[in-house]
Amino acid sequence: MRHPYDELLRQMEQDIRNSSDWFYRIVRATAPDKFWEPPADVYETRDAVKIKIEIAGVRREDIQIELARDARSVTIRGLRLDGDTEACERTVYHQMEIYTGPFERVVQLPANLAVAADEVQASYEDGFLLVTLPKRHAARPKTTQITVQG
Question: Does the model's pTM come out above 0.70?
Answer without folding.
Answer: no
